């Protein structure tokens, strides 16, 4: 999948409380077996903190549609 250089996402750092804007290449998506185990993560460009946020269906769709690197945390049905 080709990632658009213009795709940007706004996110909130839970550590320094900054609102940051990130390209698809700066985000990672982990899809778990349940909604509670599905999240996206990034490194805050302001403070360097590793941030992990829950990802619902709409966020998963937006991130995968933009080509964000995705990892499945489970195998099978």
Structural commentary:
There is one protein chain. By secondary structure, this protein is mostly beta strands. The protein has one helix and six strands. The protein has a four-stranded mixed sheet, covered by helices on one side. Strands 1-2 form a two-stranded antiparallel sheet. A hairpin with a 6-residue loop joins strand 4 and strand 5.
Strands side by side in the biggest sheet: 5-4-3-6
Into which percent range does the helicity of residues fall?
10-25%
Q: What is the overall number of helices? A: 1
Number of strands: 6
Biggest β-sheet strands, sense, barrel: 4 strands, mixed
* Class inferred from helices and paired strands: mainly beta
The Rg value, from CA coordinates, equals 12 Å
**Distance linking N and C termini:** 24 Å
- List low-pLDDT spans: none
Q: Strand fraction band?
A: 35-45%
What is the arithmetic mean of pLDDT? 89
